[in-house]
Structure formats: C-alpha cells, structure tokens
C-alpha cells in the first residue's frame, strides 16, 4: 500500500507491516499506522498515520536513552494485546522534538506497546510509576552516544 505523507512524499509500505491501534491513540484520529525510519543509523522512527498525510509522531526505543527504564504493562492491557511474555512486546515512547536538543522530551509515563507478531498496539499508563510525560530526553545520554536500535519493524522512508 502507499502512504501519502506531507513529510516524506509517497511511501510504499507492505500491508502486513501496518500497525493497528484498535482503540486509537489518545487525542489522535485513526487506527492504522506505519513505523518509518529516515535512516538505518537513526535512533528515531516516525509513527506515521496510514490515514492522514499530515500526521506523524517521532518515537524511539526508550532504553537507548534510559538504560534502567522499567515498564509494567497492566494485566488488562497485556490481555487485550495478547501478550504472553515480555518478548512479545515492542515498546516505543513518543518524543517531543524542539529546535534545541536540550528541549527534546520523551513520554516515559505512557509508552506504546505493540505486539510483535500481530502488530496490534495500545498506549498504556506505565504501572512502574514515577515516570514523567515530558522527561528531558538527553538527561542521561548525549545524542552522539546513542546507537541506533537494531531494525524492528520500520520501513525506510523514501519517496516511491
């Protein structure tokens, strides 16, 4: 399928790579999303709406920035996603970008939990508690020290 993007142009995405958030994402329209990467060596991805050309959120693997980050998925959320073990889950956090790196924040309180096999996801309230919605992203690590995560699901973002 093709996703029309105001950010990337037309992007070709395999239908089986589309993420589905059956309950949507709080405050955002639509259920179908694609995980796009601008480059293989970036620690950031774009969670791009498959339904809206102008809607994309920067996301990242939180452990690249916070090595001791702890996520506890509520039992009800794990059940709804069909997660049998922690290895079933891909966990990403939404990043709020800014003109200054020092102003970048990450939502550690509400991670996105995606079942790796079914690609169904939910945004949850992290039961581990104590995490901020707007945690400074570069509080523990410099950008140059962050290594890209191994490829997870992303599609290389390039015009088709």
Structural class of the secondary elements? mainly beta
Low-confidence stretches: 154-160
User: How many domains make up the 3D coordinates?
Assistant: 1
CATH T-level topology = BH3618-like
Q: Helical segment tally?
A: 1
Question: What is the CATH superfamily classification?
Answer: BH3618-like
Q: Return the average pLDDT rounded to an integer.
A: 90
Number of strands: 12
- Residue share in helices? under 10%
Q: Beta-sheet strand percentage?
A: 25-35%
CATH domain class: Mainly Beta
First-residue to last-residue Cα separation? 11 Å
Rg over C-alpha atoms, rounded to the nearest angstrom: 15 Å
What does the largest sheet look like?
A: 10 strands, mixed
- Give the second-level CATH assignment, the architecture: Roll
What is the H/E order?
A: EEEEEEHEEEEEE
What form results from the Cα inertia axes? Answer: globular
